[in-house]
């Protein structure tokens, strides 16, 4: 009769089990890491804090398109979008804003809406792909909300997107967003010093609609240059 041999399964398979548990731990951490930007940005949408960069406020944890529009996740698959502080100070107070209708689809980097300022119409680029699911009706009645509060009450649209991370990956956030805004203000400062244009109010604040002070006749051309719609 064959003799019975006791085999300690854990002793023989312990290394394999430890390896599997370690792999699962790394997998969980990586999944949380991938989803961290959305969670963080969702909190930003609720409590907005800004950083002043020279004359322009930048909402912390928002995601920025270089055409000076922004997007911030509100919940899974939903982005709230609008224009940044630089854009509203560049063009000044609009008389009207033409927004897409609910159900229309926007493409990241293509014209998403228009602002009418004086007799000019200024196109602005959508920061994300997706379907418009809500329009800020208040902004249609009071377009100057974008001047008073561009990051909260002055939001423009809510967009439903099936590709949240792909949209956000193409935008600027955090340190990159601040560096971009610093470069933009450097460009403005260079133009002001070159042309000796007085655009600062008492207290050092920049004049609303300062593009008109720099280029009174062709200010819309200057605006389109910075908003990336001059093609």
Number of strands: 11
Write down the CATH class: Mainly Beta
Report the CATH superfamily.
RNA polymerase II/Efflux pump adaptor protein, barrel-sandwich hybrid domain
Number of domains: 1
CATH architecture: Beta Barrel
Q: Which runs of at least 5 residues are low in confidence (pLDDT < 50)? A: 4-13
CATH-derived topology: OB fold (Dihydrolipoamide Acetyltransferase, E2P)
Walk across the major sheet and give the strand order: 3-4-5-11-10-7
Topology order in helix (H) and strand (E) letters: HEEEEEHEEEEEHHEHHHH
Q: Tell me the structural class.
A: alpha+beta
* Radius of gyration from CA coordinates: 24 Å
Helix content: 40-55%
Which range does the strand content fall in?
15-25%
Number of helical stretches of at least 4 residues: 8
Largest β-sheet summary:
6 strands, antiparallel
Outline type: globular
Q: Look at the structure and give the mean pLDDT.
A: 85
State the end-to-end CA separation.
90 Å
Describe the structure in your own words.
The chain is of the alpha+beta class and 231 residues long. The chain has a single domain, classed as RNA polymerase II/Efflux pump adaptor protein, barrel-sandwich hybrid domain (OB fold (Dihydrolipoamide Acetyltransferase, E2P)), CATH 2.40.50.100. 41% of the residues lie in helices and 23% in strands. The protein has helices at 9-46, 85-91, 137-141, 145-148, 164-169, 175-195, 210-214, 219-227, and strands spanning 50-53, 56-59, 63-65, 69-75, 78-83, 96-98, 105-106, 111-117, 120-125, 130-135, 157-160. Strands 3-4-5-11-10-7 form a six-stranded antiparallel sheet. Strands 6-8-9 form a three-stranded antiparallel sheet. Strands 1-2 form a two-stranded antiparallel ribbon. The longest helix is centred in the first third of the chain and has 38 residues, at 9-46. The chain starts with 8 loop residues before the first helix and ends with a helix.
